[in-house]
Amino acid sequence: MSADADIRERVANLPYPTIETVAVDLAKPLSECKVAIVTTAGLRPNGDIELWSPDPRFTVLPGHAHDVQLSHFSPNFDRTGIIEDINVVYPIDRLAELADEGVIGSVNDRHISFMGAQMDATFSAIINDTAPKAAEILVDDGVDVVLLTPV
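Above: the chain's sequence. Below: its structure in token form.
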């Protein structure tokens, strides 16, 4: 069995929490909503080479920044698509296009990036501590809709 297949087999049966999906009615039309990105790609501003995994912290990314980089450097993680087009995990250009077309009201000036690779202890910290803090930032910014981009 290849190392890649071995890793996939091991992580396929890891326990994970059940999170209920909740439908939400928007208070206003999408064409009037401010949208932010929350990604689990572990993005950091370009040049910030601090590696963190697993870690419950999050990074606030500047609104229309394209100079972001992955903070996770595993040989088991294929970064090809992200290197080719950051919009794969951080669709900042697509949101700008939607705003220009009037599909959404606007793109927020700040976005949030978490590290997707988490363990039980850090995942609990995210749910109980850092996710509410990240949500508070977006609420303070007047964000109406969050686009979650998992990796």
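Helices lie at 3-12, 80-84, 92-100, 120-140.
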